Amino acid sequence: MSRFVLAILLAGSAALGLAASSVSHGLPLAATMHWTADNGNGTYSNPLFYEEFEDPDVIRVGEDYYLAGTTMHMNPAVQIMHSRDLVNWELAGYCMDRLDLGPAFRLEGGNIYGRGIWAPCIRHHKGTFYVFSNVNGVGLQVFRSKSIQGPWERNQLPGRHDLSVLFDDDGRIYIISGNGSPYPIEELAPDLRSFRTDAPKRALVGRMGEGHHLYKINGKYVDVSAIPGGAVDQMVAVADSIDGPWKIERMVQGESLGVTAAAPLRAQPNDRGLWLHQGGIVDTPSGEWWSIIMSDHGSAGRMVALVPVTWDNGFPLIGLPGNLRKAPNTWIKPDTGHAQEPKPAFIHDDSFAGPQLNPHAQWNHVPDDTKWSLTEMPGVLRLHSLPATDFYSARNSFCHRPPGPESVITVELETSGLAVGDTAGLALLSWPYAWIGVVKTAEGNVLQMLTGGGGRRRGPGPAAPAPTNAPAISPAAPPSHLWLRVHCHFDTDEAIFSWSADGKAFTSLGKPFTMTFQLTTFQGVRPALFNFNTAGESGGYADFDNYTCVEPRARGIEREIPIGKTVTLASGADGSFLAADTQNEVLVNVAAGAAGAAPRNAKFLVLDLGKGRVALKAANGRFVSVDGQAAVLKDLGRKPPGKAESFQWVNLMRGDTMLMSLTNHRYLATRPGEPGLVTVTATGPSPARKGGECFKWKIVE
């Protein structure tokens, strides 16, 4: 990170009234300012990236791991990441700089929002990397390269939905696809340029899903796929032969990792949540198995989690022994043989000072490269306007992904180059969409915030003008140089647009915008820089500078463990406290006293056992210990805490904490509204955190 960008980030944090993160966490500065899954203590916390990364497929090549994800209508196309520890990732590149497969891909007479290129399958065979990914209505794209950085050669085959490819050890190349039983299993020619027409007819019969991942593991054929939807599970099928018969099991069941279906702060106790589904599996050289798997995260889009896999009766099941088909949100990092300093995968800031754009950014469709520049005015991104009826149909919208759970995006805008009919600014690309920007009229410049679109599903055909609401117009004429900002809060699914004349004091404009995940763009919201002309012709230009993305909750109480502190632990369901019943030597939950006060026996010293594991010591010197499904108090004498006294401190966002016993990989749990014995029976968090297994801690000494 350059000193210039770091100064912008620190200044942005101060302007927002946010406490700038420091190295007090023992982490590199970048890891405290941007979401980093690595906790720095031998554990990691999900999501792997706190931003959208869709339809993951992962492979290992020697000691290196590669992850491919969907990019749909965005350009460049098919994103590939690299890691050596499965937790810390960096961008390796894209398969295709320009997904230019027809006029609609260029926003000419139509659009491909919510379509484009989907669900990649990444493989490595005999020294060559392969990526297979379907383009709706066009065909199956086959990419190949000796290097993961490319260049990639491409050929096209007839389309196949959510496919997966297996290079078998006998030289045959199998491809499975489809979203309904029977799932065809076809063969590809050795050169991958055609299907073998002489191959036997094969199919996997049974209830599986889409998003296939086909493997051969220890001589067995394994297919992993996801039931389509949001609150759905992932299935796994195993066979001795590619011809079957296939045995099918549920691989993950009802695991939300505490992610709600509604905006988190509006979720009701009966919220079903959004479940883990659709992801691949991979092994480590040490013999561990892991899955990188997706779930929906509301308006921020679909994100991935890293979860352990346990083989049980011949099936790879997500979860840990004693708690299969569920997944911990915080767990020990994989044993890959590589130690790595925590590092954020994505930093979205861009001063536009270099010869290239931030590689994590993408264009909304294939860009017109003659209409943008980093060199016409060095140090800025210059966008020349192109004709469009509205923002949704505007070309050359320059997009990033907004990190959750909260992000504040700010950019400087110089408007002196605008022509009449130009509109330039900062948007959230979605359906509906919203933007704040400067409109150039014959009378002068006007600052507006506008929302448009809504109620239209994706599909082919010309781009229709989007319905719009009346814009909010600033009473003050904007200066030619100004700052625009959007504050995205994904716990409420609300975004607030604002502007400033000096980059310090910001004034909101318009009503809060309700962000959604929808099936028109089939993505979460995307911050976008844009300039289009509604007069039906190319117009002037807008200069953008110092794009910053501040993540106020990248670290904080949600990622801390109060080691060495005496705390209370209050249930998020009913406010009752964990307490020591010293008469019966058991752990109980008791109702709060007057004004929510904690009783005296509700204080526990948190002792560090390493790797994010703790022991809880009651005021009488006894330790919380697990005995079967019961939580008891045990006198250890001079012995150190053992496995029964060890709990993985599992952080969820929004300040919720769970305590996982290492005896059965289940969690301490209370019965909401029923003070009494605490058990060690919870299999995971209820999405709204109201099931009695989530606690909020507070330091009292």
Helices and strands, with pairings:
Layout: H1 3-15, H2 29-33, E1 43-45, E2 54-61, E3 64-70, E4 77-83, E5 89-96, E6 117-125, E7 128-135, E8 139-145, E9 153-157, E10 164-167, E11 173-176, E12 183-188, E13 202-204, E14 210-217, E15 220-226, E16 234-239, E17 247-252, E18 277-283, E19 289-296, E20 302-312, E21 315-320, E22 323-324, E23 330-332, E24 362-363, E25 372-373, E26 381-384, E27 386-387, E28 398-399, E29 406-414, E30 422-429, E31 433-441, E32 444-452, E33 472-473, E34 481-489, E35 494-500, E36 507-508, E37 513-514, E38 526-533, E39 541-550, E40 566-571, E41 577-581, E42 586-590, E43 604-610, E44 613-618, E45 623-627, E46 630-634, E47 647-651, E48 657-661, E49 667-671, E50 674-682, E51 695-699
Parallel strand pairs: 27-38
Antiparallel strand pairs: 1-23, 2-3, 3-4, 4-5, 6-7, 7-8, 8-9, 10-11, 11-12, 12-13, 14-15, 15-16, 16-17, 18-19, 19-20, 20-21, 21-22, 24-28, 25-26, 26-39, 28-38, 29-34, 29-39, 30-31, 30-38, 31-32, 32-33, 34-35, 35-36, 35-37, 40-43, 40-51, 41-42, 42-50, 43-44, 44-47, 45-46, 47-48, 49-50
Describe the structure in your own words:
This protein is globular. Strand 49 (667-671) and strand 50 form a beta hairpin. The chain contains two helices and 51 strands. By secondary structure, it is mainly β. It folds into three domains: 118-332, Glycosyl hydrolase domain, family 43 (Tachylectin-2, Chain A, 5 Propeller), CATH 2.115.10; 362-550, Jelly Rolls (Sandwich), CATH 2.60.120.200; 561-699, Trefoil (Acidic Fibroblast Growth Factor, subunit A) (Trefoil), CATH 2.80.10.50. The strands form eleven sheets. Strands 24, 27, 28, 30, 31, 32, 33 and 38 form an eight-stranded mixed β-sheet that branches. Strands 25, 26, 29, 34, 35, 36, 37 and 39 form an eight-stranded antiparallel β-sheet that branches. It is 3% helix and 43% strand.
